[in-house]
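seq:
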Amino acid sequence: MNSSFREQIEYRDDLIARTLSKRIDNMIQSMVNDTRVISAYVLKESETDRKFYLSEMERIAAQQPLYLSIQTFNEGGKLLTKIPDVVSPEPFSFDHIRTYISWSKTYYISDMITLLDGRKTFAITYPAIDDNGVYKGGVIAFVNLNVLSDYLKELKIRELGVNAIIDRQGSIIGHSNVELINSSLKDHPIGNYLQKERYGMWEGQLFNEKMIVAYRPLSKGGFGLIMGEPTEQAMKSSRQVTTLLLQGFIIVLLIAVALTVFGTSRVVKPILRLIKQVKEYNQNKRRNFDPIQTRDEIEELSRTMGQMAAELRDKERRLFYTLESIPYCVITTDKDGRITSFNRGAEELTLFKREEVIGKSIIDLPFKENKEEFVSWKTLQEGKEFDEVESYIFDKDKKKHEVRIYSSLFRGEDHQLIGAILVIRDVSEVKKLEEYLRQSERLASLGQLTAGIAHEIKNPLSIIQAAAEAILLELKELKVESGFVSELIHDILETSDRMDELLADFLKLSKGEENDTKEVTNVVAILDELLHHLRKKITDQEITVSRHYEVKKAFVYANKNRLTQVFLNILLNGIQAMEQGGILSIRVKGNERNWEVEIEDTGKGIAPTKLQWIFNPFFSTKREGTGLGLSIAYEIIMQHDGKIWATSTETVGTILFVQLPKVTREGDSL
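struct:
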């Protein structure tokens, strides 16, 4: 209503402004016509003609109160006549006006000027031009701004309406309130609009109060018209109607409230109680429905809902215990992948509590290394079910489990997807048993192979031993002093004896016999002895050996020769991996129960896809390798109740770890 009322006000004000602007334009045009007629006085030379036009001037001045004074002047600016004959400025004192009409030879309407007596006015000037087009002087008429303001006051809108005229400089030359004459609107938005000859409506602060006004440029003199009224006055009728409507609304509202109170007590209140119970049931804040005593259909509805809730609780309880009794991880999600149920098997496998995961998206949990590996997510995205997929899962402690995954979709009665179920079975132990079985089969094959190899090596080894002993006897008989040669021959004999013992052990292994010759052995001494034997190979390949021993003696209960074979294989692998030189680091450290040996090289490393196979028989990353060294080492360490594993980074190097149980010097296990 206010918007419509405001539109009517703007339409009315614009219409009045257009009408008033035409009237003022006509009034100014009439004054221009008067000065044009009077300008003939300057051109007449006969006294009779001059008297005629002088009487015409007096008639015009008497009939039109807007004239403050009418004067004529010659081309030099000399005053010829003045009506009425009162104190007023000489025409030539306004040189800019006289200069303008002398060259333009047309009328001119000035901005506001000040007379000698201090009065404010504006002038309408018309030139006198003879038949040859020569400027001979002119007529200047000064306008009475008080009379102009009275005229504007008569045409204002109601009591507080405002009409005003401003000149080209933004000064007020006419106002329904004469006290505001000579005020300036030069910096006001309306003054700027009128200076650019724009027209329209404006609402805002004007003449020290908030107003709604219409503004239009006048076609004469470059003046502008402002017409409007205070906003308070304009909207007074609207407020009266608003008050009337508000009173009617309040009456209707009171009637509606009374009817609502009556309906609430009989109908709405029981329904609200039932809705409240439904919400509480949905939020798990209540487990049954209280009957609503209304003796109508609402009471029957509340009883029916209570029976449905009881049956639903029984079904939920059976489903819950069924899921909890399943020994596997069972997870259900909604269609967006958010977890809706998480059974006890899932808690035991993932180490997450159901309170931590319910409501979260399954892909936000750290079960997998990346989103694309989530079978449940693929099930939802692709609409494809998976049956017994071999995969893995990380638990809360970042431990990896080998698992088999089964997934299926849930669909509603309209066949729309509503979620998915995920069943995960931990097969880590099964995988280990299968790996142990495969390793046993490989070692059985290895035993058969090594039996044949041992028989073939024993004969040439006996010849090497005999030859070395013969050289040693020959040196003694010849009495040749060569400590270096003797030392090398002793190394050959010692190593060949160890090899002979190892071959004997291999033969026992192939026959199912075990070598129980174990003793308290110092791992540090074995490592130092092997490094001494390999010193020439290490030096030739420009390898630097770095030893980091926490202790000088690390005792274990072991077969020394077989343990020597383990570390010899590992050291040779590290040396062979550094063909262009590098650093061979040996670390010995211990904890409460075990000694741990780390042998690290800076070679080319092993690819992740190959690292898991390095302890398998006949698998080798070297072109000339047999693939037996680390598989034999693995079997020996297992027989000593130890562990052996490796880590590697390509282009960086490889670390072999050997862990053996500690013993005291006397041989007691720790």
